[in-house]
Fold:
Amino acid sequence: MVRSRSVSPAQRSRIQEEFTELIEGLNQLYGGHLRAKFIITLGDEFQGLLRDAEIIPDLVWTLERRFTARVLRLGFGYGSIHTSIKEYAINVDGPALHSARSSLEAAKRRSWAGGVFTGFGATLDPALNGFARVLHHQRATWPARQREVVLGLHDGRKGTVIAAELGITKQAVSRYAALAGWDAYVQAERGWSALLGTLAGNERP
Structure:
């Protein structure tokens, strides 16, 4: 969590409550995809162990959407874990954790948002980071109305439903989606997820 200690004690308390609710929600939403559940560490950091890497694009989207109180730096590492793995990802160590820490340091040093990837290999690291940078940039350019439409589309709602919810026409929904570059965004996000999915059952690249 970026600059979480720069706010007043009252604000920090509220933010921590929201952060706790976020992590609990992630464990419920992605429980079947986790090797060890997310847990808060050091007050403003969290960690977890993923079973399925292909959920990362959706995870990044969910984190950005559900937690807006502060910017979150996201670091993803690939590798083995040398300690025993329990229900929650606490007191774990190994190359995967070290790579994730390196990713966080890179995110801070370079002001990268949307996820940073380390340890996936000389070919995959730049590819995964490229997807992360481009997709985050795309999300950051959406004005409020485009974002509202895109959120509905990402949730799988039809244009007619979104139009009724927002009090606009179906044609307006299509126009906002086009302005947001939604079709291109979806293809890129699917490609990102597919690339991450190649890790399943394979040797480390």
